[in-house]
Write a structure and sequence with these properties.
It is a single chain. Helix content is about 30%, strand content about 50%. With about 160 residues, it is α+β, with helices and mostly antiparallel strands. It has a five-stranded antiparallel β-sheet. The longest helix is centred in the last third of the chain and has 23 residues.
């Protein structure tokens, strides 16, 4: 059975400005749910320093595609030098944060994550050779990753 996962890619977003941290979290969570991923928080840290809040989150999300393939999307969100600000939206004063955001998201397709072939590795070779559409998998998962990336950029108002 060919070893290794099918790595699809990594995308990054850098942003400095005003943002709604809750809206960002909600978008990321709802995106995973809309694509039927089971997601969980792997890491969370938050620290207040003299020049603002420093917040780090790491999520992992998985979705079973077949007995032989699952998709994994990982996200790392780092917020730095974030300070609360008041903005006026639709005539209302609303609390937001002003600071820096860095997001890194990556995707891969995992071969035999449930160990279905176990000791029958030759079956994995047969599956890979005759049934596995690597390019189709990369295209599908790559499209999902680009959609996730684009959605966050739209939320943050990034146009490039």
């Amino acid at each position: 059975m060919p070893s290794g996962d099918l790595k699809v890619g990594t995308l990054r977003i850098k942003y400095s400005g005003i943002f709604d941290v809750n809206e960002l979290f909600e978008f990321m969570h709802s995106w995973f749910a809309s694509y039927n991923y089971d997601s969980f928080l792997k890491k969370h840290s938050e620290e207040k320093k003299g020049n603002g809040y420093f917040i780090d989150y790491e999520w992992a999300a998985e979705r079973k595609i077949s007995d032989y393939i699952n998709f994994t999307v990982s996200s790392v969100l780092s917020i730095s030098k974030a300070n609360p600000v008041i903005v006026v939206e639709n005539g209302e004063k609303i609390k937001r944060f002003k600071g820096n955001i860095f997001i890194e998201m990556s995707a891969k397709a995992n071969r035999d994550p449930y160990n279905k072939f176990g000791k029958l590795q030759f079956m994995g070779h047969i599956y890979d050779k005759y049934f596995l559409d690597e390019e189709g998998i990369k295209k599908k998962l790559g499209g999902e990753l680009k959609d996730y990336h684009k959605g966050i950029k739209v939320l943050l108002g990034i146009t490039k």
